[in-house]
Design brief:
Domain Surface lipoprotein assembly modifier C-terminal: 205-487
Largest sheet: 14 strands, antiparallel, barrel
CATH superfamily of the largest domain: Outer membrane protein transport protein (OMPP1/FadL/TodX)
Membrane topology: Multi-pass membrane protein
Signal peptide: 1-18
Shape: elongated
Keywords: Cell outer membrane, Membrane, Signal, Transmembrane, Transmembrane beta strand
Family: Belongs to the Slam family.
């Protein structure tokens, strides 16, 4: 095995293209008030999931296959009668990293007399790595290295499999072992350097920023009906107010590598709207969280205690502390599942009757229809408590989104949502509110229309609330441009 593996050094292609296509997972909407804050993240995550389905160019290192092996057509019986030829054919396929052909040939090779068991184990591990079964691949690579630590081709495969399984601390250890080799081919050195850069990139601060112009003709969510006639007279309700300003959204994240698949994450985000001509409706929210994260090739699980604050009208409005847990799981190349659970306590310094605990749950199912289309469906439920029962409610809802990648790098994204809020007590007008909230959004952008990473997007948002409480019935439409950038 050692001799066979050594012969492959000059033609190793490894998994270079595979580790560069790791896709971060995306999270479900955390809360009703903050749903729009995750819009930019969801756009990027959906688009990345689409691109993962598309064929990407593979880095190839050319190899000259012996002339006597080219154009040969032989049966399984012929191969079994010529075990030496079968072994040479296996080596040629390994040299090309032709996993598709190795799948077909390996069962035949294992039937041959005196076949190389270690080579067969190596091929099984390489096939498992190609299938996404990193646990088996990593275990087999390590078994081979335990028998012979000098098989640094196997160590390269192990390093790339560990990267794909997001065991970044272990990748560093394997790269350190690889650097001890004195005479590595240039292709190996380049591969090791690129793998090291990709690993360290996972340990840096990442930033996302979004900025847009806002023109809101009903910033105070004034009801559609302006007057209410009762036996005691006519009530005149507030008229819609307009406001002009900017919307903003920013996130910052950093992961630290711990043991195996475990890490520690720090995360912060802030979003809001600033109106220069109607500042009493300025709205800003931020949240900071930190906690352990477990990641693998297809799974990410986080447990994140957090602290959040909301300012409304440039004054402190609400303070939140709680715990959020998110699970993202890629079932296969087409299906993705995301779940989120969050619970906490809100306190309002000026409105103590709103103080209370809350709980939220979300389940999302994503499906890549084709390499250019992605569909997701989400179900949400939750409870918000308050000292005054008329401000406490249960809510449940559904969301659906569709992302389409058109020719010439044009992306279209549409979302629709429906939710029901059932309040728990009678309000001042002796009404127990039951609000139906409808929402829709449309986004259009061109991925190659950028300037130094700043990319513009065209957006249309629509929201309508229908309620048995006339004051809570309103609708609004916003058309705007925004600019986003990732660091």
């Amino acid at each position: 095995m050692k001799k066979a593996i050594f012969c492959l050094l000059i033609v190793f292609t490894g998994s270079y293209s595979a580790f560069t296509s790791a896709v971060p997972g995306s999270e479900p909407v955390p809360e009703i008030q903050g749903a729009e804050a995750y819009k930019a993240v969801d756009d990027n995550a959906d688009l990345e999931f689409i691109r993962k389905q598309q064929k990407r160019p593979q880095r190839q290192i050319t190899v000259d296959v012996p002339q006597e092996h080219q154009g040969i057509q032989i049966t399984e019986a012929d191969l079994l009668m010529q075990p030496q030829l079968l072994h040479q054919l296996m080596m040629a396929l390994v040299q090309r990293q032709n996993v598709t052909a190795l799948r077909l040939l390996l069962p035949i090779y294992k039937k041959s007399a005196n076949y190389d068991h270690e080579l067969a184990e190596y091929v099984e591990a390489r096939i498992a790595q190609d299938d996404g079964n990193m646990k088996f691949a990593i275990k087999t690579y390590r078994t081979l290295l335990t028998r012979d630590p000098s098989l640094f081709l196997v160590r390269f495969n192990l390093a790339s499999a560990l990267y794909l399984d997001k065991q970044y601390a272990q990748v560093r250890s394997e790269l350190a072992e690889i650097r001890k080799e004195q005479q590595l081919p240039q292709d190996f050195l380049a591969f090791a350097h690129e793998l090291e850069l990709a690993t360290e990139q996972q340990n840096t601060w990442s930033w996302d920023f979004n900025l847009g112009y806002v023109q809101d003709k009903n910033v105070n969510n004034a009801p559609d009906q302006q007057e209410i006639k009762t036996t005691n007279g006519t009530w005149t309700l507030p008229k819609p107010e307009s406001a002009h300003g900017i919307s903003y959204f920013a996130t910052v994240n950093k992961d630290w590598f711990l043991l195996n698949n475990w890490g520690w994450r720090a995360q912060g985000y802030g979003f809001g709207k600033y109106y220069w001509d109607n500042k009493k409706y300025n709205d800003m929210q931020y949240r900071f969280s930190t906690g352990p994260v477990w990641q693998s090739v297809d799974t990410e699980l986080t447990f994140m205690p957090f602290y959040g604050m909301r300012y409304y009208g440039e004054r402190a409005y609400a303070e939140t502390i709680g715990l959020r847990s998110v699970l993202n799981y890629h079932v296969n190349g087409k299906w993705r599942i995301s779940t989120a659970l969050e619970g906490g306590k809100r306190t309002h310094p000026k409105r103590e009757y709103l103080n209370g605990r809350y709980a939220l749950g979300s389940f999302s199912l994503g499906y890549a229809i084709s390499p250019h289309q992605y569909l997701h469906l989400s179900v949400d439920t939750g409870y918000r408590g308050a000292q005054d029962p008329s401000d406490a409610y249960h809510h449940r809802g559904v969301r659906m989104g569709y992302t389409l990648l058109l020719p010439k790098n044009i992306v279209v994204k549409t979302d629709v949502s429906y939710s029901l809020r059932q309040y728990l007590g009678h309000n001042l007008f002796n009404v127990v509110q039951r609000n139906k909230v409808f929402g829709a959004s449309f986004s259009l952008w061109k991925t190659d229309w950028q300037w130094k990473g700043f990319m513009p997007k065209f957006n249309i948002d629509y929201e309508r609330t229908c309620s048995n409480y006339v004051i809570a019935t309103y609708h609004k439409t916003n058309i705007y441009l925004d600019i986003s950038k990732s660091f």
